[in-house]
Amino acid sequence: MKAAYYKEKGKFEVGESEIIAPKEGQVRLNVAYCGVCGSDVHIYHGVMDARVKAPQVIGHEASATVAEVGPGVTNVKPGDRVVIRPLHFGAPHSFDNGYTHVGKNLKFIGIDSSGAFQGSWTVPSYTLHKIPDSLSLKHGALIEPLAVACHDVSVGRVKAGENAVVIGGGPIGVLIAFVLREKGANVIISEVNETRLAMLKEFGFQTINPIKEDLVARVSELTNETMAHVAFEVSGSQPGVDAMTKVLNVRGRIVMVAIHGGEPKKVDLFKFFWQEIELLGARLYEEKDFEEAIKLASSGNIPLDAIITKEDSLENIQGVFEEIDRNPIGMKYLINCQ
Amino acid sequence: MKAAYYKEKGKFEVGESEIIAPKEGQVRLNVAYCGVCGSDVHIYHGVMDARVKAPQVIGHEASATVAEVGPGVTNVKPGDRVVIRPLHFGAPHSFDNGYTHVGKNLKFIGIDSSGAFQGSWTVPSYTLHKIPDSLSLKHGALIEPLAVACHDVSVGRVKAGENAVVIGGGPIGVLIAFVLREKGANVIISEVNETRLAMLKEFGFQTINPIKEDLVARVSELTNETMAHVAFEVSGSQPGVDAMTKVLNVRGRIVMVAIHGGEPKKVDLFKFFWQEIELLGARLYEEKDFEEAIKLASSGNIPLDAIITKEDSLENIQGVFEEIDRNPIGMKYLINCQ
After folding, report:
1. Mean per-residue pLDDT for B68-93?
2. Any chain B CB within 8 A of the CB of A217?
3. FRET label pair with A55: which of A311, B7, B46, B248, CA 20 to 30 Å apart?
4. Do the Cβ atoms of B102 and A227 come within 8 Å?
5. What gap in Å lies between CA A50 and CA A37, rounded to an integer?
6. How far is residue A110's CA from residue A56's CA, in Å, rounded to a whole number?
7. Which CATH number is correct for B149-281, 3.40.50.720, 1.10.760.10, 3.30.9.10, 3.40.640.10?
8. Selected residue of B157, B233, B273, B289 to mutate for chain A interface (largest A Cβ count, 10 A)
9. Which residues contact B234 (CB under 8 A, 6 or more apart)?
10. Mean pLDDT computed over A224-234
11. How does A178-199 read in b/e, with b if 16+ C-beta sit within 10 Å?
């Protein structure tokens, strides 16, 4: 079985997958598909070399079949079809407040340790969620990003009938929009790219291009002056941060999904005081988010095929990452690891 | 009975209080004491002239005795001792989400209409809360700012045993600290002024001067590495905003108490994502906050006398405001309106 090793900035090398016999509490998987995450692209760009120990197999948006189980494993058996929640919890810390998924000693499998762009992968059994027959292994590889979206919507405490504005219609933004629609929210997406906007409209979403239209006026119009109960900042940009405080009504919630690295952004804190709005950070997912994502994906209500830009083989991983760099508006690329 | 009219920037004029017979649903009060709020000082500085229609009586932190009631008033009777929640609710708006206290049509009594720096004051009966005999009229004038503190702590969802950092130890900061202590929180106050720090220490609070000490290291030390579950940004400054995201643990809450006008401040949004922290805007108070403030103040557990910097007569209101400008670290000034 093959494995794709990240070697150095801009370079993968395909070699053999190391077959690691599962120890106590571990499971060896035959990986089926693994999606390419934005963080994989960051690693490929060399900006996470301090954290990734090259040569290393990366990747974490995976579906798989159980090959063999180690001693003491009871939650899965060989042949089970599974997805992986790639979080390795360290020792609990008082700092964590019980939220181990963002805890002080959390390690991320596929970044801090060997990942899923390979045929054989050995992981802790507690990371595994079984998937039903109605969910294909290909769609299974979308469960991890869909669980991110479920977590974001859960943090935002979204209720049916609420107006929700998603700022940024990329892969995570569109998954958030799908989850919001399933929750019964009135969804509006703000996106600047016309190709993406066309796709979002095809999915049936109300869209705004804030470069061409007055975002606040349009949100007011689309919500009958009620404005948004909740906004999702997924753009990672200063204009997105400027917009997030403007589209809300009183006690509105903003979910901070984007990773705002670099210099701190300017935020209209007066608006927080004046309208008692909330900013809620959201990262990764908890166990329940994975279960919800599996349920939603299995329902068939979310057009998952439509957000798969391309599927390619493990042997061609270098070409896939090069194509992603040339196509910044692509949605989800899947690697077939079988 | 006398009244103090705000005339123009830097100038009050003392004249006669207009005796307005209460109409349906109104109550005429004999005002006892009225505290000076930061917003009264802003008005005195002329920065709110667009909103205040000079000559106008201002002031809203009042205690009073009911003089006469208009038709249909059943909640109070002449002779009752009361405090006033100075919010005039307009028509409900879908934008308000049911939170009328920060609603679109809210008017603030004492800013948008005649206030309490006068002997006779006529207000809607629904603004009144009766106070028990155990609470003096002087302490009654502190209920409004104490209700602000109760609201802030309520928005922060503070539980007994939690670590709370208050950034800024002025009048509102110290009231928040008192309420936090009553809730059973472990309170730490960050303040830069040494005179205020000495007073806060006398009240028994743990204090940090972030100019002289490493704030984050000290919070870690005082919380046994747990860091804060909740922080209150009361400083209104960029260093306060920088500090608020640094003192928290995972899923920590920040309550935005300060009014950050002017240019948007720089905020470390990455930290919101990484630790799933929350920023919660808090403004004014709801009915329950006034009831809680009355209960707390009546308990005698809060040393309210110690935060009264000075009491003076209505005739000398000009001198009081001039003194406040010379003494930026003063806490609460009371005007005796009797």
Report:
1. 96
2. no
3. A311
4. no
5. 18
6. 9
7. 3.40.50.720
8. B273
9. B166, B167, B168, B169, B170, B172, B173, B176, B240, B257, B258
10. 98
11. bbbbbbebbbbbbbbbeebbeb
Cβ <8 Å between B96 and A258 = no
Q: Is the pLDDT of residue A328 over 90?
A: no
Q: Is A266 on the interface with B (CB under 8 A)?
A: yes
Q: H or E element: which one contains A326?
A: helix A317-326
pLDDT class for B328, splitting at 50, 70, 90? Answer: confident
- Average pLDDT of the residues in A246-268: 97
What chain A residue is nearest to B258 in terms of C-alpha separation?
Answer: A273
Distance from CA of B81 to the nearest CA of A (A): 31
Whether B2-141+303-336 shares its CATH topology with B149-281 is answered: no
Subunit contact A266:B268, Cβ cutoff 8 A? no
Please tell me the distance from the alpha carbon of residue A19 to that of residue A34, in angstroms, as a whole number. 18
For residue A80, the cross-strand partners are none
* Domain residue spans of chain B: 2-141+303-336, 149-281
Phi, psi of A79 (to 5 degrees): 100, -20
Interchain contact A91–B (C-beta under 8 A):
no
Interface test with A, best of B97, B227, B266 (most A CBs within 10 A): B97
The residues near B263 (Cβ < 8 Å, ≥ 6 apart) are A266
Cβ distance A250 to B103 less than 8 Å, yes or no, reads yes
Nearest to B268 among A96, A251, A264 (CB): A264
Contacts of B138 (CB under 8 A, 6+ apart): B32, B33, B63, B308, B311, B334
Q: Chain A to chain B, count of Cβ pairs less than 8 Å apart?
A: 144
Residues A281, B283: C-beta atoms closer than 8 Å = no
**C-alpha dist (Å) from residue A236 to A56, A257, A264, A328:** 28, 8, 11, 15
CATH homologous superfamily, domain A2-141+303-336: Medium-chain alcohol dehydrogenases, catalytic domain (3.90.180.10)
A271 and chain B in contact, CB less than 8 A: yes
Contact B30, B38 (CB under 8 A): no
